[in-house]
């Protein structure tokens, strides 16, 4: 899932930042030659892929940390029907 795939609350900070990025990108593209636009698009594609990998890794880390906390809590509980 990419940030552009989600719905944001109108006038939220994220929504304002995304609008600003889009506006600035369009202004920049207007200043570039066709060759420069192609290079910029390739740069954006790689940056998007890197962001996706980073988001995945952070989610995985958070999920594992949450599972670890859950196990720590469950270890201290006296749960019936579980033999030790």
Descriptive notes:
The radius of gyration is 22 Å and the shape is elongated. It has two domains: 31 residues; 43 residues. The protein contains two helices and no strands. The mean pLDDT is 88. It starts with 12 loop residues before the first helix and ends in a 9-residue tail after the last helix. It is mainly α. It holds the Pfam family DUF6809. It comes from Acutalibacter muris.
Largest sheet: none
Overall number of structural domains: 2
**So how many helices?**
2
What gap, in angstroms, lies between the N and C termini?
41 Å
The helix content is: over 70%
Q: Would you tell me the overall average pLDDT?
A: 88
What is the strand tally? 0
Task: Name some characteristics of this structure.
84 residues, mainly alpha, 0% strand, 2 helices, elongated
Strand-helix topology:
Layout: H1 13-31, H2 34-75
Quick synopsis:
It holds the Pfam family DUF6809. The chain has about 80 residues and is mainly α. It contains two helices and no strands.
């Amino acid at each position: 899932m990419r940030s552009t795939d989600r719905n944001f609350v109108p006038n939220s900070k994220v929504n304002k930042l995304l609008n600003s990025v889009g506006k600035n990108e369009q202004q920049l593209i207007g200043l570039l030659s066709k060759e420069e636009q192609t290079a910029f698009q390739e740069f954006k594609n790689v940056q998007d892929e890197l962001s996706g990998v980073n988001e995945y890794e952070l989610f995985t880390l958070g999920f594992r940390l949450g599972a670890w906390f859950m196990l720590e809590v469950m270890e201290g509980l006296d749960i019936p029907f579980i033999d030790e």
